[in-house]
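Example S7 (structure tokens).
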């Protein structure tokens, strides 16, 4: 008996299987036929949902980004968080190891998957930066922050942080990573126009 699934269910099934294959075989070695065989669908069905393997990759990245953006928005609207706590928690919301899986994250860092990694970082920065900017601008209006360039500063901070603290890019000793984190917090303080110690008091609860 032929099983008919609704559009979103079938689409998510393809994305789930493709994500596992990208992490086990590698994005470059995985073919559309591999996805077809593992999902158990015909080629025509696949192309009804996606134009290509790269289109599948884009959809996986978009799905993860949407999840992170949703979490970041919830943090930004939490009245119990101070402005500094919101910024720290928004950054923490970008951790996706549990949802994506360590295997796929490791696959992202392989040289042959540079495009995959670049797209994921770009998507994350574009999705989360506006939320951080909103928090900073609100802090400016309340007199909490004195940030002259909220958009540019948050772009610089988030891009630097997710790159420099990425173990897959810079493999350093824990002490060196801790120093890098401390430097990034000091930089964030300067960008916000406040004492970096006040930022570190919040940040060290999670990274100290």
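Recovered sequence:
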């Amino acid at each position: 008996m032929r099983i008919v699934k609704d559009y979103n269910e079938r689409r998510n099934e393809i994305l789930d299987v493709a994500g596992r294959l990208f992490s086990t075989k590698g994005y470059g070695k995985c073919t559309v036929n591999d996805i077809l065989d593992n999902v158990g669908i015909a080629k025509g069905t696949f192309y009804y949902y996606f134009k290509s393997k790269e289109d599948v990759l884009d959809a996986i990245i978009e799905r993860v980004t949407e999840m992170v953006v949703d979490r970041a928005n919830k943090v930004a609207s939490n009245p119990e968080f101070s402005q500094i706590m919101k910024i720290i928690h928004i950054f923490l919301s970008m951790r996706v190891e549990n949802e994506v899986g360590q295997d796929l994250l490791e696959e992202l860092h392989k040289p042959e998957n540079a495009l995959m990694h670049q797209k994921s970082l770009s998507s994350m920065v574009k999705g989360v930066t506006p939320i951080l900017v909103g928090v900073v601008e609100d802090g400016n209006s309340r007199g909490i922050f004195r940030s002259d360039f909220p958009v540019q500063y948050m772009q610089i901070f988030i891009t630097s942080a997710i790159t420099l603290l990425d173990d897959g890019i810079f493999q350093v000793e824990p002490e060196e990573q801790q120093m890098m984190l401390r430097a990034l917090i000091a930089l964030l303080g300067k960008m916000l126009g406040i004492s970096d110690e006040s930022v570190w008091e919040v940040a060290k609860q999670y990274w100290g």
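Notes on this example. The two ends are 57 Å apart (CA to CA).
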